Every structure is written in structure tokens, then in C-alpha cells.
Automatic annotation (TrEMBL):
The lineage of its organism: Bacteria, Pseudomonadati, Pseudomonadota, Gammaproteobacteria, Alteromonadales. It is an enzyme of class 4 (lyase). Signal peptide: none annotated. Belongs to the HMG-CoA lyase family. This is hydroxymethylglutaryl-CoA lyase. It comes from Pseudoalteromonas xiamenensis. Residues 7-273 form the Pyruvate carboxyltransferase domain.
Amino acid sequence: MAYPEMVRIVEVGARDGLQNEQSVSTAQKIALIDALAGAGLKNIEAGAFVSPKWVPQMADSLDVIAGLSVPSDVELSALTPNVKGAELALQSGVKEFAIFTAASEAFTQKNINCSISESIERFIPVMELAKANNIRVRGYVSCVVGCPYQGEVQPEQVLDVCKQLLAFGCYEVSLGDTIGVGTPNKVQNLLSLLLANIPRDKLAVHFHDTYGQALANIHKALEMGISVIDSAVAGLGGCPYAKGASGNVATEDVVYLLEGLGIYTGIDLERLARAGWQICDALNKAPVSKVSLALKSQCA
């Protein structure tokens, strides 16, 4: 089928990206999110209400969100793994919660010591709080192609988890290739099964670039009509299961691809790149984005 006319990008750099980087200041996080919104991004993960013991990089999420000056049409979301986190997210004023599980039983057992079904059941109070306060809930499914513990993950398992999350009340499910082992053929096999059973507008893709396949996988998803893509400015966030490897696909690279295909994003690529340069300076690292680096060399 034809490419989507428009693609919605969900910017995850300020949460999924920064939680895998060294800590930066609250002011620097606020400046990043404000700059991302200024570049035209309308869906931004702004923080995570998780235990500061386990994810200290996200300990100031309440202060970050309180300090933002984004336009009213920018939708902010936050990761809410339990009801305590959801209550804090509600206090922050975000209008979207994010919950997560995996398509691999080995992954959920290893990480949170329960089955996939049990991990979803743990979100019941989060969903109840969300419904009572008119908050949308987005589901994330990790390891949709491969798992660091069990290896290959079958598409049928991904379908089962997606169905559970959608029946649970999630408005959308983001398919995460957590360790970045996906290839276009694997993505096609997975999406062929999912799209035969789930409406296209209920699915998003979240590819990591560990093996350099993220853009190729995104292109395949676009060919199959997927119109929601998760990405992180400057490619923030490494892969915790492959030391030194790239993590999230860079938003700059995704936007450049989409523009080249004639797909509307509403994003100013140069302003986006500058937001990435600013946070990378704070992190004392270079962007993990070929487009960002190319633009920076032109501006030097």
C-alpha cells in the first residue's frame, strides 16, 4: 500500500533516552523538552515516575514537567509502572500514562519476576486511576523481535500481548525491538500477523539501532501503513543489552527519511538538530545521528 500521508512521531529522548545516559540537570531537561516542542514535536515523553533508587536520572520528573513552557497542543506523557507513579503523574498534569510489558516470558521473569499476564494485571489500579481522570494510556511491548534471554520471539506471542493491552484499555501499543535485532523481513512477518488482527491505527513502532537496521525497519513499517514512530533526539540512550551499542533510532534521521519520502511531519529539522546538540553538549558526547552530524558540520 501507499505510504501514510502524515506520520506522528513520539519523541522519547527526554525519558527513554536520558534514563540510559548520565544524569543532567533539571534545567537542562526542561530546556530540551521546550526546544523539542519548539521544533514542532507534538508528542513528547517528559519523564518517568519510577523509584529514584533504580532510575535516579528520572527522580526530578515532577519538577521537570512543572517547569515546562510548551504550547497547549503538545501532549506530554510519563511512564507509570505502578499506582504510586500514576498518582504522581496525575499530579504533574500529564494527559497520558505509559505502561510496559514484554512479549518474552523470559524477559518479564528476569526483570520483574512475574509472567506477562501477571505484569499486565499489575496495571489494573493504574488503568482505574487513568479512566477516572480521563487520562489516555499507551502500552509498550518490549522484545517484539528478539530477547536477550530467550533469543527469537514469535509473532504469535507479540499478537497475544498486544491483544491483552488493547482489551485492557490502551489506546495504542508501541512495538519495541528492545535489542535492535529486527530486520525488514522479520518486521514484515510480525506486522503481517498483527495487521490481520489489529487495526492499523492501534500500532506504533519503536526500533533500536543496535545493528544499524532501525531506518530500514521503519521504512518497511511505513510501507505497511504504520503511521506512528517512536524515536529519540540525537539517538539518546544506549542499548543496555549490548555494551557500547546504539539505542533508540535518532529523531533527526527519521525526520530526514520521512521528508525524503514526501511524508509530512510538521517538524523543523534544523531546530530539532539544535535541540540535540544542546543536550549532547550537556552530556559531553556527540549525537548518535548521521543527519545531526551532517547538519552540524554544515553549520560549523
